[in-house]
Design a protein that fits this description.
The complex is a heterodimer of chains A (80) and B (186).
Chain A (H helix, E strand, L loop, with lengths): L2 H7 L5 H48 L8 H4 L6
Chain B lengths: L2 H9 L4 H21 L3 H18 L8 H20 L8 H9 L15 H13 L3 H11 L5 H8 L3 H21 L5
Helix pairs in contact in B: 1-2, 2-3, 2-4, 3-4, 7-9, 8-9
The chains are: A mainly alpha (80), B mainly alpha (186).
Chain lengths: 80, 186
Amino acid sequence: MRPEDLYEAMQQIRPEFLEDLMEQKRDKRAHRAFLIAAAVAVLGCVTAVAVTFSLRDTARADIGVKGTPVPEWTEYEIEG
Amino acid sequence: MLDEEILALYFRRDEAAITQTEKKYGAYCRQIASRCLPGAEDCEECVSDVWFRAWNAIPPQRPENFQLYLGAIVRNLAFSRWRKRYAQKRGGAAVELALDELAECIPAPGVPEEIVEARELGEAVDRFLAGLPVRERRIFLWRYYFTASAAEIAARYGLKEAHVAVLLSRTRKKLRTFLEKEGYVP
């Protein structure tokens, strides 16, 4: 037997073993795509939160409201 | 284009099938061929032969996994071509290094060669691979089926090249022991 025979004999192995290698390649791509999508989603959420809070603070500053809670929110609260 | 669509072109005997196959799998086939054939011209001829073979075989054949089907054809053709042209005076192809490594699994030169049925040996290798842990099997196949270098395999699995070399060496030893047990190696 020569090494060439061994190399050629590998042509006989079951396709599942090779399909496993190919699927792994696809898995890796899917994994990378998922990571990119997750990173974009996280960035989007952070931006949305930042914009919301800065808009709220700006709006409150514009109308001269300071402190929390805003007095108008508790204006009609029934005490006791 | 999806493989199913490409195969449909073959079945309609539409020559666009070859163009689409080349477009999708040309680089993949060239990469496999180039590991056996050091010359670019040889490599190109080999890949053209692959398209020709596929055109003649489909139909009636309908490969379940088109990529692996093409990979098997190109591996076969490139290795046959290497055997004809470079086996005697080696040309520096990557496959030569892989063959040198595989030589560890078989009797040393000087031991009378026994003619082994390729199919039988293939079945034995298949049984050996089935008994290997998944990671070792994958690394072994990348190296000795697709002739990928240790560096490529290391990059693929996030390992160090030296680690891949150690894993491959261990698997070769296991293969030798397996072949001895099966009676292929004296």
